[in-house]
Amino acid sequence: MLYLMSIELYYRLSRVNTFRLYNGSTYGEYIIKSTNLPNNLRYSILNARHPEECLIILRDNQIEFTHDYPESINADDNITLTIIDKDVCLVE
User: Fold this and answer.
1) CA neighbours closer than 13 Å in the CB half-sphere of residue 19
2) Could you list the residue range(s) of the whole structural domain that residue 83 is in?
3) Average pLDDT of the chain?
């Protein structure tokens, strides 16, 4: 599941210097920079007139996303680090 910051958070952060430079000057550009979507969806999102329309495009194409970061993390995808002693670690 993708994490996308909410539209409101995007616009709040866009007031910070250089935020738009790295994250896009529109919410659609932010989505494109933050994800790896097929070209047809990228095109549709970049041509959306409103940020809400970008999210509708994702939903209509069965792209699961959330604005809640902890919800986007799947514990099964995480690695486990076990420290055996001061010089040896086990990564699972």
Assistant:
1) 12
2) 2-91
3) 87
Cβ(61)–Cβ(41) below 8 Å: yes
Do 27 and 10 form a contact (C-beta atoms < 8 A)?
yes
Buried b (16+ CB within 10 A) or exposed e, 7-35: beebeeeeeeeeebeebbebbbbbbbeeb
Structure tokens given for 38: 């097929």
Count how many domains the chain has: 1
Q: Nearest 5°: phi and psi at 48?
A: -65, 140
- pLDDT band per the 50, 70, 90 thresholds, residue 70: confident
3-state SS, residue 76 = helix
